[in-house]
Structures are given as structure tokens and as C-alpha cells.
């Protein structure tokens, strides 16, 4: 924790936040981790208030950061599946902790 240079934002916490910041990213990661392989429509079912544009953008960002893998199958209708990468799987202990914390402290 002493390896942070806040003047230059050269701190591991800033990197972590840059990758997983966003209102929905933690929830998206949670559902992908629970399902292991999940399609776009199922994520949308789990998060009904999320806008299509927002979900698409958050998934693209997670893929670009190497947290999730997107597999597209060239069939009709188009089929796309999402899974966690090894980098994404390393976030599962934090997801589990967040779930437990929420269970304990939510009303």
C-alpha cells in the first residue's frame, strides 16, 4: 500500500478502479462468474434496469481490459457467449467478499 504515487496516479488502486469502475461492471462480473458461460440476453434478464447501450459498452470495456472473453458463433440467429478470463477469475474472491458484505449489512 506504500507503493502509491498519487501525484502521478501511479498506484495499483487507480489501475484496478480504471478497469472495474462503472455502475454495472461488478454485477456483470458476478453473474458471469456464477453462470461460467453466459449469453447477452441472460445478463440482461439479471439486470433489467440496465440500458442495452450501457450493457454493450460495459461488456466491450471488460473485454478490452482482458477481464472477460467474448465468443461469437456464426450461426443464425447470432450467438455470443461470455466467460471470465484468468484475469477475470482473479476478481472472484473480491466478488464473493462483496456479496458477503452486502448480505451482512443490507437491510
From TrEMBL:
Alphabetical list of InterPro entries matching this protein: HTH_HxlR, WH-like_DNA-bd_sf, WH_DNA-bd_sf
Keyword Ion transport part of the UniProt annotation: no
Ranges of residues in domain HTH hxlR-type: 11-107
Swiss-Prot/TrEMBL keywords: DNA-binding, Transcription, Transcription regulation
Gene Ontology molecular-function annotations: DNA binding
Keyword Transit peptide belongs to the record: no
One Pfam family recorded for the sequence: HxlR
PANTHER family recorded: TRANSCRIPTIONAL REGULATOR (PTHR33204:SF29), TRANSCRIPTIONAL REGULATOR, MARR FAMILY (PTHR33204)
Name of the molecule in the record: Transcriptional regulator, HxlR family
Species, as recorded: Paenibacillus mucilaginosus 3016
